[in-house]
Specification:
Number of domains: 2
CATH superfamily of the largest domain: Glycogen Phosphorylase B
Strand content: 15-25%
Distance between the termini: 10 Å
Radius of gyration: 21 Å
Structural class: alpha/beta
Order of helices and strands: EHEHEEHEHEHEHEHEHEHEHEHEHEHHH
Helix content: 25-40%
Oligomer: single chain
CATH class of the largest domain: Alpha Beta
CATH topology of the largest domain: Rossmann fold
Length: 367
């Protein structure tokens, strides 16, 4: 039995982003050879649970009374790691926030404990961070690559970056590429139930495009909204966290009243998301930073045409089979023409490469 601690997420049950969904699915597909302990933020999970649960899907849950993201993320990861210095065969660290402390942590960690780190999507390159935050995140990334037994990249473009920037070929298995899964989004939902959910948003099956993202500049929300607001025909349903920043609120105020645009609040109910995604005619993916983005992988399973922002990460994730745009004018041209890609091809690729059972097995092989 391999005792593995997972560090760096808000925790489970998953109510937030990609790393939380990753942990959820690692637990769902856990073999009998692995015993997980998951560190959770009691502050982040508080809105969803009246009391912290000690066990979830066979995993032991341990709580840290700090937020997992933002200014407290480094301390959150450090405190989690300090509670894992002994008694674990492997530490699976998701993200690099706390990795700046690894030179210190490694001094006290058992030499028998493997350190596996998923470095996420090159956080220091994101536009939202100031100069100090970028320096901290870049330093944390360097420490992660230096001190990890295995570095996980979720996209080949991220792996290429690591190879070009750091000496990551020192020993076999030093760097591996493991993407996210997406087959958990396929639910058994009746047509009647789907239509009922769509009616809440004033939508009809096949009569709209959809985009699901955090409302941030690097996800090119303004580009997407601008293109749809001046292209007659297919309306856009953009689902996101509109209240998390002043920029997001202003963007919603600017576009929400325009024809062809529906700005909807974030949805965490998988049934509602399933209905909205399965009923769409087209998926728009504006992310320009990071590696394999979970929402893009999930969208591929629905077999819809995908128009994605033209960066290497998105081309790698879709195997070059989506259609790509670089600005609002480019997206307008795609929208004005016939479907520029075949959704069925993307669904086949998703079933071949993004199944959680396969991905969970690859993670367990690293422990």
């Amino acid at each position: 039995m391999k005792k593995t601690a997972i560090i760096g997420t808000r925790g489970v049950p998953a109510h937030y982003g990609g790393f939380e969904s990753l942990v959820e699915n690692l637990l769902d597909h856990r073999s009998e050879e692995v015993q997980y302990t998951v560190f959770c933020s009691s502050k982040d999970l508080r809105p969803f649970a009246s009391a912290p649960a000690p066990v979830y899907k066979g995993a032991t849950l341990k709580y840290v009374c700090l937020h997992a993201n933002g200014a407290q993320s480094m301390l959150y990861d450090l405190l989690s790691m300090l509670r894992c210095l002994r008694g674990y065969d492997c530490l699976l660290v998701l993200g690099v926030s706390g990795c700046i402390f690894l030179p210190f942590v490694r001094l006290f960690m058992s030499r028998k404990t493997r350190l596996v780190i998923n470095i996420d999507g090159l956080e220091h390159k994101r536009d939202k961070w100031n100069r100090l935050a970028r320096w901290i995140l870049l330093t944390s990334e360097k420490m992660a690559v230096r001190y990890a037994d295995t570095v996980i990249a979720d996209n080949q473009a991220i792996a290429d970056y690591v190879l070009q920037t750091y000496d990551a070929r020192q020993r076999p298995g030093r760097l591996v590429t493991i993407a996210y899964g997406g087959d958990h989004v396929r639910l058994s939902l009746s047509e009647e139930r789907c239509r009922e959910i769509l009616s809440r948003y004033g939508l009809t099956p096949g009569g709209y495009a959809i985009s699901v993202c955090r409302i941030e500049p690097e996800n090119n929300c303004q580009v997407t909204l601008d293109a749809f607001s001046r292209t007659p025909g297919l309306p856009l349903l953009l689902i996101g966290n509109w209240e998390h920043s002043e920029w997001a609120r202003q963007l919603r105020e600017r576009y929400a009243g325009r024809p062809g645009v529906i700005c909807a609040d974030a949805v965490y109910d998988l049934e509602v998301l399933y209905a909205l995604r399965s009923g769409a005619a087209l998926y728009i993916h504006g992310h320009s930073a990071g590696g394999t983005n979970p929402s893009l992988v999930e969208a591929m399973f629905f077999g819809k045409p995908i128009y994605a922002f033209d960066v290497s990460y998105n081309r790698e994730s879709t195997f070059g089979k989506a259609a790509y745009f670089s600005d609002a004018d480019g997206l307008c041209r795609l929208l004005a023409g016939e479907w520029a890609c075949k959704g069925e091809e993307l669904a086949v690729l998703a079933r071949e490469h993004y199944r959680w059972a396969d991905i969970a097995a690859r993670y367990e092989a690293l422990y």
